[in-house]
Amino acid sequence: MPIGVYVCHCGLNIAGVLDMDELKRYAETLPDVAVARDLPFSCSDIGQEQIQKDVAEFKLDRVVVAACSPRLHEPTFRRAIAKAGLNPYMLEMANIREQCSWVHMDRPAQATQKARDLIRMAVAKAALLRPLERETVPVSQEVLVIGGGVAGIAAALDLADAGMHVYLVERRPTIGGYMALLTDVFPTNDCSICVLAPKMSEVFNHPNITLISYAEILNVEGSVGNFMVQGQKRARYIDEKLCKGCIDQCASVCPVEVPSEYDFGIGKRKAIYVPYPQAVPLVACVDPKACIGCGRCVEACQADAVKLEQEPEEFKFNVGAIIVATGWQPFDATRKEEYGYGRYRDVITSLQLERLLNAAGPTKGEVVRPSSGQIARSIAFLQCVGSRDATVGNIYCSRICCMASLKNAQLVKEKYPDTDITIYYIDLRAGGEGYEEFYVRAQKLGINFVRARVSRIEQEDGDLYLIFEDTNTGEVKRVKHDLAVLSIGLEPDRSADVIGNILGLSRRPDRFFEIAHPKMRPVEAHIDGVFIAGCASGPKEIQTSIAQGSAAAAKAFKLLQKGELELEPTSAFVDRDKCIQCKLCVDICPKKAIAVESPAYVDEAACKGCGSCAASCPVNAIDMRLFSDAQIMAQVRAATEKKDEFPLIVAFLCNWCSYGAADLAGTSRIQYPTNARNIRVMCAGRVDPDFVLEALRRGADGVLIAGCRIGECHYVSGNDQALQRVNVLKEVLGKIGLDPGRVKIIWCAASEGEIFARQLKRFVDELKEMGPIGTELRAGEAQEAT
Amino acid sequence: MKLAYYPGCVSRSTGKEMDLSTRAVCEALGITLEELEDWNCCGATHVSNELVAVGLAARNLAQTDLPVMTPCSICYSNLRTAAQKLEDRKLRATVNQVLAQEYSGAKIRHALDVIQEALSQNPDLVVVPLQGIKVAPYYGCLLTRPRGVDSPEFPTVLEKLLKDLQAEPVDFRLKTFCCGGPIFMPRQKAAEDTTFKILMDAKKAGAEAIVTVCPLCHIMLDAKQKALEIKRGEKIGLPVLYVTQLAGIALGLGPDELGLNMNAVSPIPMVERIYEKMAEQS
Ligand SMILES: Cc1cc2nc3c(=O)[nH]c(=O)nc-3n(C[C@H](O)[C@H](O)[C@H](O)COP(=O)(O)OP(=O)(O)OC[C@H]3O[C@@H](n4cnc5c(N)ncnc54)[C@H](O)[C@@H]3O)c2cc1C
Ligand code: SF4
What is the CATH number of the domain that holds A472? Predict the structure, then answer.
């Protein structure tokens, strides 16, 4: 197996510190190396052509490039060797720039030593590389959108217009979400339902959309490209095909009246109802909790659409991708007991005010005090109710309520110029295009702003008194109002819990669904093929919810448009003869990609290649296609073949965070000791205790394992698993008489080059203190002897 | 039922009637109280030093396996705060280093909660119903903090008890307002303003008496009432009873057993009215 080794100068970036000649000559001496060269810029066209020429001339079947970080140019060199006819995975890189020349600038001799080791390790691994094929699997080109709020509607329409078939599953009898219930909406104060209703009917009429309303998802199996979805459509007790949505005939004879959830309890509806006139589908619905079964509606309906004996219907379909747009639910204001919501009638929520302001609402747009029915003359808005409040477990800002109150205050003021309005706020948050202008407009309208978190509301002789400290003046005040509006925060929809569990989505501490990366992947879930849009991943306004719906649609479209998926060959695979069916791997796999059906089986489309299963398998029956056990072991052995430094550290760095941090230390030129020989793994969870023990057995003085910060693992829990394994390892070391401190686990984010350098330095110091490996064993023996 | 009894320092000084009535009421309810043998300060005197405060509380709690009952909201709050903090293993280990008896967890109850529970199960024990007597239920701040028996903002347990005693709880706006006690030393005027406000609010709500669960509240509302009347030139004349005293009256206990003569504003005339009313009715 002829190997070509290319040591890159990178101008003076590497050559300015390391001895290029020496490295090239050293590489020539390594086993199987047919040719070694030093190139001024290996990534340049000239450099790449040289490699390609050598592949032909020396019949190379694998290539080692000792240059910058593989995170930068691995794809470049893979492409280069593929052009020369090699399998792209027959490449290995030694990182002698970010993790060597840039961080050991004042110690060229030791740095060159380290680079020799790194090249030796790379060549050892290269010898064990295997050609890998990117497999393709056919995928379903249909998409499931869960939740028909404005975010889900945007996603469904974009996909359908682009030609993909969409199943839109909505839990309520109508789509539209909360936006359909709002009055005019900021920042332009246009009528909410007027802009939303056309979209809702477009959904209904679109040939590419199957709308399943009043339904629930019960189960999802499979993985990206091929999800099997199963659900149930609840009984409306109405034949959807026959119902004309006229509602007058049936509802007018219905004897039961209950508070309407679509008016947030201030209006009423009958037991047979349509949520609101623009509902989609425009079909009546019988509320089984309220219905007394008198059957009058059955008689009244001329279309003969009421079917009180209707049963729920099951449905099943396959999709290639899923968009979760389950939205939010309002904070329960009774939990802030000091404001008396539920005890004082004139304390209402912002959503109730939306309904009062709504011309189609229960008061036909009049803002009245519920206690008296009189027009409110003095209104207080209390901000951050249930948000930014640790006492109710919501420390986050709900983001839209400042703007919503500014909007509603304006609407009231425009309608009733004499009404006195005060907004009590902690900070006024109006960040967004046109938002600050919107705030200024409210000020100009004569709305008062008091910086205070109201401490309580008291009711005395029918009036409300707000008690607060005006933090601008430092005065404690008690001020009378006749209507208090609580700006309630947004919480994740409770029913979305079920969806979260079915899909295996993770949650942030604020309980909203977590996106794959808080900046770079705003609409992707941790699970491949699942996207999140709108308030399901945190409070946001309509504009952003729509943008996310469209973004999720684009992502789903990109994923499925070819009709097949190319899989990275990073996945795990099972040696069926070795597997003892202990199922450890099944529990460990963060992607739920492994099933045990005598023996274990890996769903390669779902596997992301973290390798935690391989590290945990007690009989080494699972291995990884990239970063295989044998390859990593070869690197460990090569690293410890010559011990030219004390202390010698074998370091395992996870690809996403700590390897990135080490690279960043390089780009920031943070200097640290040369003692570590780094081995890249996909995840800290990949580190098999065998690797660690082998390193120590062969004379490494210490082993460092570096992972993403706890809670930030790219495979959810790989670093936790690594920590558990290290803890067990430490016990083992203690038992055999070695200092448990020789194995160290650290966490650093990709942005924490400084921390990586500092931790490494500290480890070097600790190991110096301990002495070379085995010191403690000899000391122990000596003690026993005396 | 058997409970460990933690009287708290006030029982030996300004709150003897609290202690007396607690013992008497518990006896009448068939609750055996076993006073902690060697109790010390609940920690209130050392709140600025967490370790000492928690240590003091733990030394008390470690002396028994029974639930510990106290009639004082300050003690109640401190003991519970300590018990919560002692969930932290490190802190618990540190504290246990210096304790003769090891602390290993405790349940703490307030006399109010104990009495309310007993009476709601045994309504027949109320032999002198407080019918028609309007009482302002005053909680103060510490009974409900850290959150325990009842909601901190809108508790209702006292109202429930008053109804069990057949009294009439008035709608008392300032029922959870601070009594002013904690700031009396540094800011006497502000403290007095607060106390005055609470008393006037109770009066305005139509109360004939106030019921309290905390000896500091009691001092502020009862002992300082006379002086406030003089300073503000306003007659208040509201007897302020410990919850144990009020419950005791309904259980048919006599003024001496409940220490009613120790209150600054005498509740005796009210008691007499209650008995007269009862006589009229029978
Ligand atoms: C008082 C108030 C005023 C506001 N005013 C404005 C404004 O003026 N301008 C503005 O831009 N924004 C405003 N907002 C914010 C606006 O309401 C949100 O941006 C918007 O509702 C987000 O839409 P969504 O689709 O993400 O969620 P939602 O509107 O919550 O829609 C989610 C949908 O998913 C459905 N669903 C949930 N769980 C499931 C499930 N398990 N299966 C199936 N379906 C499910 C729900 O029934 C719902 O139909 C306001 C918010 C409040 C509280
Ligand atoms: S948007 Fe305004 S009202 Fe809403 S939580 Fe944030 S700061 Fe509070």
Answer: 3.50.50.60
Q: Which domain holds residue A295?
A: 237-311
Domain containing residue B33: CATH number: 1.20.1050.140
Tell if the pTM clears 0.80, that is, is over it. Answer: no
Contacts of B153 in chain A (CB under 8 A): 336-338, 456
For residue B117, is it within any domain?
no
- Chain A interface, mutation test: which of B141, B145, B154, most A Cβ atoms within 10 Å? B154
> Is A458 near chain B, with CB under 8 Å?
yes
Ligand 1, atom 27, residue with closest C-alpha: A327
Contacts of A473 (CB under 8 A, 6+ apart): none
> Ligand nearest A389 Cα, by number?
2
CB A104 within 8 A of CB A49: no
Query: Do B104 and B147 fall into the same domain?
Result: no
Do A460 and B154 lie within an 8 Å CB cutoff? Answer: no
**ipTM summary value:** 0.74
**Strand positions, DSSP E, B111-238:** 134-137, 168-169, 209-212
Instruction: For A689-711, write each residue's pLDDT tens digit.
Output: 999 999 999 999 999 999 998 87
**CA dist., res. A553 & res. A541, Å (int):** 18
Q: Please work out whether the CB of residue A397 comes within 6 Å of at least one atom of ligand 1.
A: no
Q: What is the pLDDT of residues B31-90, one digit of tens each?
A: 999 999 999 999 999 988 999 999 999 999 999 999 999 999 999 999 999 999 999 988
Same domain as A666, residue A545: no
Tell me how far the alpha carbon of residue A445 lies from the centroid of ligand 1, in angstroms: 28
Print the domain residue range for B31: 2-111
Distance between Cα A179 and ligand 2 center (Å):
18
Interacting residues of B105 by C-beta distance below 8 A, sequence separation 6+: B83, B86
Chain A partners within 8 Å of B151 (Cβ):
337
DSSP letters of A11-25?
A: THHHHTTS-HHHHHH
Please tell me which of the candidates A338, A459, A460 has its beta carbon nearest to residue B153. A338
Residue type, B264: A
Contact list, A336 vs chain B (CB under 8 Å): 153
Q: Are residues A321 and A307 in the same domain?
A: no
Both A230 and A292 in one domain: the answer is no
Last residue of a domain, one of B86, B111, B136: B111
Number of domains in chain B: 2
pLDDT digits (tens, 9 = 90+) for A522-539: 999 978 899 999 999 999
Evaluate whether A602 touches A616 at the Cβ level (below 8 Å): no
